[in-house]
Amino acid sequence: MNTFGSAYRVCIFGSSHGPFVGASAQGCPRGETISEKAIQAELDRRSPGKSPVSTPRMERDKVDIISGLLDGRTTDAPIVGVVKNRDFDSSAYDAFVRVPRPGHADFTAACKYGGHSDHRGGGQFSGRMTVGLVFSGAVARQVLERRKVRLLAQTVQIGDVKLEKDVPFSAAEKLVRANAVGCADRTVAEKMRDEIVRAHEDKDSVGGVVRCTVTGVPCGVGEPFFESVESKMSSMMFSIPGVKGVEFGSGFRSAAMRGSESNDPFAVKGGRIVTKTNNAGGILGGIATGMPIEFRVAFKPTSSIARPQMSVDLRSKKSVELIVKGRHDPCIVPRAVPVVENSAACVVLDLMLQGGFV
Ligand SMILES: Cc1cc2nc3c(=O)[nH]c(=O)nc-3n(C[C@H](O)[C@H](O)[C@H](O)COP(=O)(O)O)c2cc1C
Question: What is the mean pLDDT of residues 111-139?
Fold first, then answer.
């Protein structure tokens, strides 16, 4: 339910309009230096209110680490971070219990919990719950970076606008943080921004694709079948609200390839066994090959749109027109970039600890 991982166990808690959101991360090696500033920087990347394509809702996501660190180093206690919720207005949400918003979890929550759930701000289903994922991932990535594992997520598609080229990792890392949409090309980033602004002006929303690359994961990380790198990574990615697709390497494009095209030939580079191409996305048999782990995550358009939509009054069973008021991101993809990147770090650390690589 709210817990992910076996060796690095992340438990997210809180709710969108409750007093706070946060996470507890267990299993981190002891004595690791962890920078609170670096954690805060990742949370700042996720928080809205900084750009014209983001909701003006101000969420000052200041993290308080209440357990697990002493003098900047990990102890044996769970690392617990809490972020207070501020600047929220729950007044509109009571209506959605009776008349569910299309694209949201109001209907399924009503079926499953029969009214016994915190519906304010989407409660447990809200994108705000990803604060806990970013917190736990921001801890994990510091442990990983010390072991030469690097993670980079970037926006490669917004609506129809795509980044077709492959920007080298280090250059992309800087560029992604330099624009509001998280794209590694300035010109494409502007087009993406325009696409989001257009959707917003149309009282609509737009989706997109986040690509994530993880380098430095040693060959051998991951287990066959149910604990495979793909199984665990996609399980984490599909837990992020709004995610509708995950593919590794050539993914769905592999279906149209011949084996001769899809197979990545082995070669030796600097004494290391590498593959000349990476259609496998750095994974064979569920186990990391040592090549970059590559995957793409598709996000649907933001569910909350300012246009009238049709719904049903769950008590009277009559059709009703619904207008979702309030402040919402016309596109969640830019804010999802640090979520994908940091939650991927949780998965990689979990697998590396499990396999004895850390
Ligand atoms: C960082 C982030 C922020 C989000 N913000 C919004 C938002 O402002 N409005 C909205 O309708 N959905 C938002 N979502 C997506 C919804 O939470 C999600 O679509 C909804 O809970 C239904 O879940 P599902 O799409 O996974 O089925 C956000 C998701 C993420 C990852």
Answer: 89
Q: Give the pLDDT confidence of 152-201 residue by residue, as tens digits.
A: 999 999 999 999 999 999 999 999 999 999 999 999 999 999 999 999 99
How far from the centroid of its chain's Cα atoms is residue 154's Cα?
Answer: 11
Q: How many residues are there in the chain?
A: 358
pTM equals 0.96
Find the residues whose C-beta lies inside 6 A of ligand 1.
55, 104-105, 122, 125-127, 130, 240-242, 300, 302-304, 328-329, 332, 335-336, 339
Residue with tokens 């069973």: 317
Tens-place pLDDT, residues 64-116: 999 999 999 999 999 999 999 987 777 777 788 899 999 999 999 999 998 78
Looking at every residue in the chain, the average pLDDT score rounds to: 94
**Ligand 1 center–CA 126 separation, angstroms:** 6
Report how far residue 298's alpha carbon sits from residue 68's, in angstroms, rounded to the nearest whole number. Answer: 34
* Residues 209 and 157 sit within 8 Å (Cβ to Cβ): yes
Report the candidate in 100, 257, 188, 283 with the shortest Cα–Cα distance to residue 178. 188
Nearest CA to ligand 1 atom 29: 127
Q: What tokens were used for 132?
A: 């806990």
> What average pLDDT does the segment 318-331 reach?
89
DSSP H helices, 99-168, are 106-113, 130-145
Q: Helix 130-145 vs helix 333-354: angle between axes, to the nearest 10 degrees?
A: 50
Q: Can you state the percent helix, strand and coil of the chain, rounding each to 5?
A: 35, 25, 40
Assess if CATH 3.30.420.310 describes domain 3-354: no
pLDDT digits (tens, 9 = 90+) for 266-275: 999 999 999 9
Element (H, E) at 40: helix 36-46
Delimit the domains of the chain by residue range: 3-354
Cα(339) to centroid of ligand 1, in Å? 12
> Contact, 236 vs 296, CB < 8 A?
no
| Pocket-testing residue among 204, 244, 297, 329, ligand 1, by greatest number of atoms within 8 A of Cβ | 329
Separation between Cα atoms, residue 169 and residue 158, nearest integer Å? 20
